[in-house]
What does this fold into?
Amino acid sequence: MALLEVSQLDVRFALRQGEVRALRDVNFTLERGERLGIVGESGAGKSVAAFSLLNLIAKPGFIAGGSIKFEGQTLNTMSERGLRKIRGNRISMIFQDPMMTLNPVLSIGEQMVECLKAHRRISTKEARAIALDKLQQVQIPSPETRLDQYPHELSGGMRQRIIIAIALLLDPDIIIADEPTTALDVTIQAEIMALLLELCEQHNVGLILITHDLGVVSQVTQRMLVMYAGRVIEQGLTREIINDPQHPYTQGLINALPQMATPGEKLNQIRGSMPSLSNLPSGCAFHPRCDFINRADGQPRPACTQQVPEFVESGNCRVACHMVAEMLEDRRLKEETQ
Amino acid sequence: MIAFLIKRLMHAILVMFVISVLAFAIQDNLGDPVQQMVGQSVPESEREAIRERLGLNDPFIVQYARFAKNAVQGDFGDSYFYREPALEVIARHLPATLELVFAATLIIVLFSVPIGVYSAIKPRSPISRFFMGASIIGISIPVFLTAILLIQIFAIGITITLFPESTSWGAWLNGLLSTEGNMPSFGRGYDLVHVVGHWDTNLATWNGLQHLVLPAISLASIMLPLFIRLIRAEMMEVLQSEYVKYARAKGISMRRVYFVHALKNTMLPVITVGGVQIGTMVAYTILTETVFQWPGMGLMFLDAINRADIPLIVTYLMIVGVIFVVTNTIVDLIYGFVNPTVKLTGKPA
It folds into this structure.
């Protein structure tokens, strides 16, 4: 049994104009010590997915269906009290913007000690000793003085190191990192990412890394999900998806990387933009932006505009695309006739 | 820290100077103090002599210079009516007002924080909706009307006969809604305990406290709804913040998230507004003290205006100015203490 098992996760937002489905049919598993990347454009539902794992989505959002199983316990039906014992303890989170994440009026020490005390019966002195040890692990200069400092006295990079230290405080099984380097200076991003990777490997912690940086995903994770408009459209081994993306959207994303452009030419881009979740196109949500909507005979494929694509297995990956399904079907027929 | 306090002292002096000039400038429009002092029967020649003796015929600049020279030495002139130093008169009335303001502040703090926090945490609950509605009403009703209503209900008493008295439930409901009206509504009561100097306190005896209740509630009635709404609005905003979400993600109890993480940040703007409002409340005491005949500075000031008692008016305004500066200074000190990102001038980093 996997450490974390998410199946058919369905998250909705009850808005005045009706229910909006922010996440649907999300399935994935995470083994102990495994690193999983979730990528997609802004608004694809990456953060919602991250927050829903610990049932932290703010109202009017709610988990409408599916299950999130952690060590066999179903988190989405668990009581708030039970969840609190898992949050920060077995599964901890790293937020996007370290400038906003730490409470400005509480000292670093207080914010670390309270987390330890919420989960363990220990004295403040012991808690401070653990906090100090973790601060050393994240390689903060002069960690002793940091405990009594306030967030505003520290730089963004240092704050994110502290947040990583807090994430590791209780030796969790999983860390969910929601764009942990997006808000940082480019020069610091690589440093922080390397630190996070190193510590996860060292402590055998599972990592769910949410990002739109495909470079980072390819370096850090073993498996990945690509999300579009609240759905997973491609998932599998990171290496395979990066080297041989099947879904036109994934292909577009990888093509859009600056290193894929011809020098002197414009950067590649996917035309159009992500549709609003409350007003999704019919059929495949990606079809208005898709370059492969036409069949070999030049006619548009009717399924693309009419039917939501089902997952098909393609090698080690699962892809939700009519075009890929058709190609696989053709190949299968060809093999059969031979 | 010392530099900060010295700076505030300069503020106080500046405020007192400006207020005294303004107060002096309007004195000609307040009526004739001599008329108030001697009555109708005194002949004009004698009145003129009194005017001359008081220096009321001198030009404005001369009068102000004379006042300022004495004021620097701590002499703000004698009250025309009381015929004793104005500062002395104020010192006698000040404790009553300060106690009233203190009691009102206590009511505001004790009620606004829990109600504000609750209605921010559960904005849709019927209790929150009730408090929000009630606070609008509270803000809209002027202090003196609240005061009169309080007197009617709790001092005079109301008898409700809305339901049939013959039935037992009707009698019960009528009795429930009717009030006996046994609260005192006039003055400070007979049972004051002398503390020090001019300070007799209401806070030490049952009778004293009873007399304090209605005036304090009516004085608090304007500010309490304001603070409930302010705390609620601030708290709701703070609850949306990333650090509150993060605190939840750390698995901390909701009680700690609300009352440590959120409330501390909520209180920052509330403290700032609160400082100004405590000063304003001193000014509101004029209304409350008049309705309840509370023998404090506000009532004294109103009488002084009626009597065109210029030295007393000027001194009162200056003292209130100083109270404003002092409360704001204290508030800034508290703010610096609560908010680690603020450093007061001169305080070592």
Residues 345-349 of chain B have pLDDT under 50 and may be disordered. The interface with chain A takes residues 240-243, 245-254, 256, 260-261, 264-265, 268, 338-341 of chain B (CB under 8 Å).
